[in-house]
Amino acid sequence: MQYRAEIDGLRALAILPVILFHAGFDLFSGGYVGVDVFFVISGYLIATILIEGLENKKLSIANFYERRARRILPALVFVMMASVPFAWFLLSDAALEKFGSGLIGVSFFLSNVVFWRTQGYFDDSVELNPIVHTWSLAVEEQYYMLFPLFLLLIWRLGTNKVFWIVTGMVVVSLLLSEWGWRNRATANFYLLPTRAWELFMGALAALIVKRIGVQKDNILASLGFILIIISIFLFDKKTPFPSLYTLLPVVGAALIVIYGERETFVAGILGTKILVGLGLISYSAYLWHQPIFAFFRIYTNKIDLGPSVGLALIGITILLSVFSWRFIEKPFRDQACVGKSTLIFSLISGLILLSILGYTSKMLVDGGEYRLAEQLSQNDFVYFENQDERKFVEGRLLYPLDTVKSIVVGSSRVMQINSRIMGEDIQSLTVSGASMEDNIAFGLEALPKLKYENIFISADPWLINVYDDQNRYMSVGELLSFWLRQIEKNDAPRQFLNSKIQRGIHYDSYHPFVSFRNLIRPDNSSRIPRDNKIEPYAKKAYDGSHIYSESYANNIHNIELGFNSILNYAMDDFDYDKRSIELLEKFVWYLKKNGVSVHLVLAPYHPKLYQMMLTQKPVFIEIEQWYRDFAYKNKVRIIGSYDGHAVGCKEDEFYDGMHPAESCMEKLLINRRD
């Protein structure tokens, strides 16, 4: 392949805004589009290599994979290993568990899938995740695995048909991403099917260049440059991505690749020594910048770096990038320096070691949910960072808690119910995406311990949907099984057993991994908030209510972007779940039998989303009426409505379409007393 200095310059144009964006420079609000420019460059270079091999009948898939491995894996493994000691020392339990899962994902080229699967309502800020940026490398690695085989399969059809097939793939993947940001935003961002069109666009550029050569067209090359610049400065976190908006940086990069011949004005800019130099170290810079920024933010407990600190960290990033490019990237790419056998042994060993370190990281925080529950029994607040909420709630019932008159069970839609707005001390045993099984397990386990008189159950639509796919309750499956047997036997609530062994919880705070963790990070007191101020972490209050992270609480202006996704949350299809309805009937019967007053809570949806329900998904209104009929039939009280306006909530009293703010829940509950 003929070397093109402007391509290295284009890499610099991609990496600089990414780094400045992650450093917190607001001017570069769309700097994340640099990743999309990288995708186009990768698609172009990979397709060019493969096409030349196919045309010359010298393509070796094994050699291709070897070259990709030499290019990507050595520096990746090196930076990930360098991050491990900092992670072990600085990260909280929840963050370290996620870090361990991410390392395992990196070693299997699946980190994008890991980060997709570990997202939740109360995610850690992305700025605090030191390896979240590896998702884009996983996308490329998956593409590298599949595209050569795909091209081999269709190449025999001729280059014209190949061009139109790839064009078709661009269109299908682009349309999928346009659907995805409306309905499955997290999967849309992280996964290959909705990102593939960007790489395929690079492949199209390679096919065009192969046919007509690199063209000298100042107008089109400049247009491409302008499209990228516009994206960097005009896009922001509110821009749906990837989507049709992504066409700007992607088409811009493709135009430069095709029409930015070295004598064009744009190529002259991109071909300057400083940009070419930055382009050469761009891969290492991409690897280093996120760990450096994230660990510094965690150490200082500040999201906002400030201009001077941001620039200083960028300088450190560049220095480390030069080092890893010179001593890791270059030697491993040189077959004379690192032979094939040495390469294979080194990379396999490195990836296995990454998996071991990932597993070890997870073991270092084994039982973290129970330790956090113990801390909350002794403090007013604790940080909560997307941990296993079921284990956390189970753990809370292991440790001393004040007896209360009322408890709340259900989903994140009622997590804002707290002691203040209830006018009495309560305990909230709520979990994200609660199922009927969660409500039974925690509601009945709390009965003999807290001796409550009232229970407030979130009456969510998916509770009675046979297609809800809410099975996270399995992490406390043993607890659920016990109480289902109690109900069937018509037994009175048991005496509470404050014994981990009797409860089947296999958590030993003194096992070697946890002991080592405590040795290297003995002071955990800084992880416990001292007041009710909202920090960059989500928190739990002593009464179990949830305090949203600052970024989530301030996301009001962006609410409507997620309405379509919420309409389908656990509700893609609907049919009444006879088993869940039977469980609810038995649950209510058992509670009433033991003298508990049952209240079903219809937590409101955003008023505008409710209007969409009326026209697009009226089954929500049918379900609300079903709950009202159920309450009447079973002589239990029902509170609220899915209609936010009917409850009296304003549009600015919602964190998103389905999570009412505390002020809204206060209006819902103000007249609850008989």
What does the model show?
The longest helix is centred in the first third of the chain and has 30 residues, at 61-90. The protein has helices at 5-22, 34-55, 61-90, 93-107, 111-117, 134-155, 159-183, 185-190, 196-212, 218-234, 247-259, 265-270, 273-280, 282-300, 307-333, 340-364, 368-376, 389-396, 419-422, 436-450, 477-489, 500-503, 512-520, 550-553, 563-567, 578-593, 607-616, 619-634, 644-647, 662-669, and strands at residues 381-383, 406-409, 426-428, 454-458, 539-541, 546-547, 597-602, 637-640. Helix content is 60%, strand content 4%. The protein has 30 helices and eight strands. It is elongated. The model is unreliable at 497-506 (pLDDT under 50). It has 674 residues and is mostly helical. The chain folds into two domains: 5-364, no CATH class; 368-669, Rossmann fold (3-Layer(aba) Sandwich), CATH 3.40.50. The protein has a five-stranded parallel β-sheet.
